[in-house]
Amino acid sequence: MFRINENFLNLSESYLFNQISKKVDDFISYKPVTDLIRLGIGDVTLPLPSSIVRSMHSAVNEMSTIETFRGYGPEQGYSFLRERIAEVDYSQRGINVSPDEIFISDGSKSDTGNIGDILGDDNVIAITDPVYPVYLDTTIMRIGKSGKILLLNCDEERGFLPELPNEHVDVVYLCYPNNPTGTVMTKQELKKWVEWSLENGSLILFDAAYEAYIQDENIPKSIYEIENADKCAIEFRSFSKNAGFTGLRCSFTVVPKSLMSKLKNGSEVSLNNLWKRRQSTKFNGTDYIVQRAAEAVYTAEGQIEVGEMVNYYMHNASIIRNSLLMKGWTVFGGENSPYVWLKCPHELDSWAFFDQLLNNCHIVGTPGVGFGSNGQGYFRMTAFNSHEKTEEAIRRINTNY
Ligand code: PLP
């Protein structure tokens, strides 16, 4: 009899957002409302900027003639895109990342989930609680619900930031600006982690999917702003929230060449080589048309357009944040992040507040407990809707609470 990967049996029954959609579908089938406002899943709503659409159209035309048709591309991504990323996202910010340290992919969900392929199963993995559920779920899929997973408590008392672990940890996932809490790490805070990691020979998996939302110039957008982070960290970036690519699918991962792991016999192995080997075996590259779309993000026009998009969402974040603060609610995030994290009113638990908000206000949010046990009693609202719907959502909350 064949056997399954029994680690899957240790996962919760469904992914958080599937669970939410099912609840919403059940609600609509029982009460067919037409005025639902979705501030739940972190999906963007604005259409793609025109410079990006133009670039895709021209790539589509290239695919239609024999002279310019493209088949399989380089697994690591086209150099036209990797060079622009190295220049605009890193070099212009005084960070040294070379194009061959950049791997283009189809999303940070895949990359943060797949990175475990190049890591040993006996590593102790630390994951902050609460956080984007993919890190924990993919780790459980790989190594099971073993004692090798350490959850780092990020509660209100700690400002939703993790403390350096007291016990031995080999790998830690850090996500800043954080999903779901919207908290950020200062340079000093991140420096502490880099120093800890270098001292302990640990690896940091740094998810910077929301870096474009950072407004405060003193908050690092990349972990490589910290000295020597290239020796201990992999960085994940995505075009999803930064440029509206949730439907197009494009991201990149930086694996510095100076990032090495020691084998038991003392010899060193480059993680850049391992990831290249992994990607060229299991991944056939991101769509050419999509990579041309991503390239357009780095043109002068593209930079202005995606900047306007981020500002649009950040305006919503400040509407939500400030209105709830004015009501006297306890609110976090929303200043350098598209997520507002709030303490559920009247000491409700996360799902009870979810149900109340859905039933009474026809608003869909995300229960904090879905991101980890420290999220119990908290709730996440996203800024990824229109100004009008965001304002209407606040009106409804003000009427009902
Ligand atoms: N990382 C974080 C922290 C996220 O919140 C998300 C999506 O919500 C992702 C990664 C996934 O992004 P992508 O669309 O690039 O797969």
Q: Report the CATH C-level class of the largest domain.
A: Alpha Beta
Number of helices: 12
Overall pLDDT, averaged? 96
Identify every distinct bound molecule in the structure, by name, code or SMILES: pyridoxal-5'-phosphate
State the share of residues found in helices, binned by percent. 25-40%
Computed CA radius of gyration, to the nearest angstrom: 21 Å
Strand order within the widest sheet? Answer: 2-8-7-6-5-3-4
Molecular shape: globular
CATH fold assignment of the largest domain: Aspartate Aminotransferase, domain 2
Distance between the termini: 57 Å
Q: How many domains make up the coordinates?
A: 2
Uncertain residue segments: none
Question: How many strands appear in the DSSP assignment?
Answer: 15
Name of the CATH superfamily of the largest domain = Type I PLP-dependent aspartate aminotransferase-like (Major domain)
What is the name of the CATH architecture of the largest domain? 3-Layer(aba) Sandwich
Can you characterise this structure?
The chain is of the alpha/beta class. It folds into 2 domains: 13-42 and 301-400, Aspartate Aminotransferase, domain 1; 51-298, 3-Layer(aba) Sandwich (Aspartate Aminotransferase, domain 2). The chain is 38% helix and 15% strand. Strand 3, helix 5 and strand 4 (149-153) form a beta-alpha-beta unit. Helix 2 (50-63) runs antiparallel to helix 9 (288-297) and helix 4 packs parallel to helix 5 (134-143). The longest helix is centred in the last third of the chain and has 27 residues, at 300-326. The radius of gyration is 21 Å and the shape is globular. The mean pLDDT is 96. The structure holds pyridoxal-5'-phosphate (PLP). Pyridoxal-5'-phosphate (PLP) binds next to helix 4.
